[in-house]
Amino acid sequence: MKPASGFRGTKLNIGHICTVILPAYICFGYLMAETSGIETRQSWIHTFPQMDTVNMTGSKEAENSRIKGTVTAIFNLGCLCSALSCILVGGILGRKRTVWLGLPGWLIKKGRIDDARNVLAKLRDEPIDSPSIVHQIEQNETTLQETGQGSFKDIFRNGPARFANRAFIAVALQMGQQICGANAITFYQSTTFKTYLGKNGTLSLLMSAILP
Question: Mind telling me which residue stretches traverse the membrane in this protein (predicted)?
């Protein structure tokens, strides 16, 4: 396996954050702010008059609001399908061709134990035969053996590991996050600022970009 770079330890982790994690969060923030902002712009309204809720009132505004809500929901479903597809095709199209060659657990699953040791050694800036790396490799191998014996149905069964409880907690947390209206506020905050708080278009967009 070719080395990712000359960095090790903290420098390598910082490089990982700056080149992989940070751009992902920037794209996510841009998506949320941009989706919220463009729907009140006149160029958007001119192109999609069926979603004009700025210049309409009464029943027409209500009808356009329903159309806008449907389009937003479909957009989010498309994002969900794209994200889930990464589970199946991410390793084939991206991870195997990147400098990181995936997580150590993925390398161990593929039988590339030496590569996994090298990755851990670089991330921790330790010798490949250090006790902590040996322990991590053994722990990952044990975890893979245990998970390989299960099935998807085990998520809904409360065995010794109490998978059903964990799944319920994870789902409940996500539902709570959505029920509180976080996405609604993010997507429609520019409309709220302009329509209900009386802010002009430029200030509404600026406030929408800052708040996320």
Answer: 12-33, 73-93
Query: How far apart, in whole angstroms, are the C-alpha atoms of residue 5 and residue 118?
Result: 12
Q: How far apart are CA 174 and CA 188, in angstroms?
A: 20
Among 44, 28, 32, residue whose Cα is nearest residue 201: 44
How far is it, in rounded angstroms, from Cα 30 to Cα 47? 21
- The domain spans of the chain are 9-39, 50-93, 102-148, 151-178, 181-211
Tokens, residue 198:
């009386």
pLDDT tens digits, 11-60? 878 887 888 788 877 777 666 666 666 776 778 888 888 888 778 888 88
pLDDT digits (tens, 9 = 90+) for 89-128: 766 665 555 556 757 877 888 888 888 888 888 888 888 8
Alpha-carbon distance of 72 to 152, in angstroms, equals 31
pTM score:
0.50
SS3 string, 95-152, reads HHHCCCCCCHHHHHHCCCHHHHHHHHHHHHCCCCCCHHHHHHHHHHHHHHHHHHCCCH
d(C-alpha 160, C-alpha 112), whole Å = 30
Taking the CB of residue 33, how many other CB atoms lie within 10 A of it?
Answer: 19
